[in-house]
Design brief:
By secondary structure, the protein is α/β, with parallel strands linked by helices. The protein is built from 12 helices and 11 strands. It has a 9-stranded mixed beta sheet, with helices on both faces. It has a two-stranded antiparallel ribbon with strand order 8-9. Strand 2 and strand 3 form a beta hairpin. It is globular, with a radius of gyration of 19 Å.
């Protein structure tokens, strides 16, 4: 068992999926310290309570994202304060997971998530996905609804036949060397990183130095952003996208929460508002003074909303 350096409350583990080594973080399991007889009895009761509830599976987005980057504070909150079992995987091509051959589409990541749940023996879970991760969660919720106890979509992709960020995102994805040049600029200094992150947040000046340093560290890793550009090329079209679940949202039967940054410039909040109306019983929470990266830009408010929904 290896404790994660980036998320000290979690263990770092690996599972093989379709021949790829996929890394995931695990928290709220085997985290109770031993002590005297009374402590041991309390720990046993606590473990029974934890194991009786469906686990929470956190799904990060694209870009240079990974499980620790998006979900650092959420993992700590869910596992430590709510006592829940939490799993957060690095998608293939991201973080410490192997990169796949072939297309990196939403359909591909839906299959990875489905296989991940099967590999870990998770027969029912709450799925929480941000951006690209939200689309993967939505795909599993529609394809294998028996696996999904609750669904949380955060600034989610897949809600409309439109390119996040507009046609500029499509052109960027198909511009030779754009990833290399952009990464080189953004990684040059923490000031440059803060400026580059401005596309994903409402107030880059208000971001913590710790978060900016974490993003800068990811930007300096070999191949950073390669999987993201591959995903955009496979998913984005000049006049639309490959993945659009808007005509199937009415099929969802599990409790569903949509969370959206009110100032998200990539995925307009309207997309989540329209989706919430189409999903039976769904609820929408808009977070003010917040852009696309809600779990890191407004972690306290995000954790509060998420925790209330999961504990209902």
């Amino acid at each position: 068992m290896i404790r994660s350096e980036r998320v000290p409350t979690a263990n770092s583990r690996y599972v093989e999926i379709d021949g790829l080594r996929v890394r995931y973080l695990e928290a709220g399991v085997d985290m109770l310290r031993s002590g005297g007889d009374d402590v041991e009895r309390d720990a046993a009761d606590r473990r029974a309570e934890i194991d009786d509830r469906p686990p929470i599976v956190l799904l990060h987005g694209s870009g240079i994202d990974d499980a620790a980057l998006s979900w650092k504070h959420a993992i700590e909150h869910l596992a430590e304060e709510l006592g829940r079992r939490v799993y957060a995987l690095d998608w293939p091509g991201y973080g410490e997971s192997d990169a796949p051959d072939g297309e990196m589409t939403t359909e591909y990541y839906v299959g990875v998530l489905s296989a991940f749940l099967d590999a870990l023996g998770i027969d029912r879970a709450a799925l929480v996905g941000v951006s690209m991760g939200g689309a993967a969660a939505l795909g599993v919720a529609l394809g294998r609804p028996e696996l999904v106890e609750r669904l949380v979509l955060v600034d989610s992709y897949g809600l409309r036949d439109a390119v996040p960020g507009g046609v500029g995102s499509y052109l960027l994805a198909n511009t030779p060397f754009a990833n290399a040049f952009g990464r080189q600029f953004a990684a040059a200094s923490t000031d440059a990183t803060r400026l580059a992150v401005g596309e994903f947040v409402h107030d880059p000046g208000g971001l913590s130095d710790e978060f900016v340093a974490e993003v800068n560290e990811r930007l300096r890793e070999p191949g950073a952003g390669d999987a993201f550009f591959s995903f955009m090329r496979d998913e984005f079209r000049p006049n639309g996208v490959r993945t659009d679940y808007s005509d199937r949202l009415g099929e969802l039967s599990m409790p569903t929460l949509l969370i959206h940054g009110a100032q998200d410039s990539l995925v307009p909040p309207e997309w989540s508002a329209v989706a919430a109306d189409a999903i039976p019983g769904a609820h929408l929470e808009l977070i003010d003074d917040c852009g696309h990266w809600v779990p890191r830009e407004r972690p306290d408010r995000f954790n509060e909303i998420l925790g209330e929904f999961l504990e209902e």
